[in-house]
């Protein structure tokens, strides 16, 4: 009987928690216009989370300018990239009246909490982060981590996981949609939240332990080198499709995408990475399972297959592309949206920082 009561309470708790309002946070670096991999891998899920949000859910989407400074930036290009990134989010369907969308660098509570968290984060833990060397290696197109001179790594690259944790915790986020490549950083965020709650205890913990949101994730590879992810840092511009590429550019890039000479279309990421990458793209654009798409093209040639991939991408992107070109020219509108989002973010995050300062004895 006693065990039955415990199980019943446990089920009721899980049912209540699963229906509790969520605070969802995610961020994107201001690299300008995102590419197809960004859209299919993350941004389309942001829109989906917004459109499917329950009453009471809060959605917070940030353009993380402070993170961008971990690698050298041209000031004029960074300024333009910030605007283009915001215009893209609005163009794909992020509603500033439903979600808080803002520039992280306009809300200084992020860096304040990052300093606090940095003071309780062991250096050894940061040095074990997989991105400590790999991010700079990728930025310099190095072939391996061994080619990176550690003396050239800046402190920001080492400590940015603490800033990333602050981005999340300053809003007391409960859910974070991230890919597997960021799972280690989210785990660090949870550890720091727990450490703070334990070190500066009160009657109730300040931070919840945010959980990873499981969303469909499409890993889109380079059109020219399907052994690596699609990236804006790749030197070959033909390796990626930007969300504002016109129809002619998309057609040329897909036509020149690396495939193979094997007859027929099959999904085999190991033996046929290029063909499989295009199948993944086509399946994502048409909202189908990749295996089902592969069956439809089993006896067809690469020419027809690539033509259909192009048509699917163009159909998906033409609406957002038109909206983007309209929004990016309306600088006053972008400034109003950014100001409105930053004000909402400041108000919410300041409530957290007041409590943080109080628990630290800084009041």
From TrEMBL:
Q: Which domain of life is it from?
A: Eukaryota
Write out the GO cellular component annotations. Answer: mitochondrial matrix
Is Oxidoreductase there in the keyword field?
Answer: no
**EC?**
6.1.1.2
Look at the named UniProt entry and state the broad enzyme category this protein falls under.
ligase
Reaction equation(s) it catalyzes: tRNA(Trp) + L-tryptophan + ATP = L-tryptophyl-tRNA(Trp) + AMP + diphosphate + H(+)
One GO BP: mitochondrial tryptophanyl-tRNA aminoacylation
Alphabetized PROSITE patterns for the sequence: AA_TRNA_LIGASE_I
Q: Which GO terms describe its molecular function?
A: ATP binding; tryptophan-tRNA ligase activity
Q: Which UniProt keywords apply?
A: Aminoacyl-tRNA synthetase, ATP-binding, Ligase, Nucleotide-binding, Protein biosynthesis
- Which NCBIfam families does this UniProt record tie to the protein? trpS (TIGR00233)
What is stated as this protein's family in its record? Belongs to the class-I aminoacyl-tRNA synthetase family.
By what name is this protein known? Tryptophan--tRNA ligase, mitochondrial
Organism annotation? Amanita muscaria (strain Koide BX008)
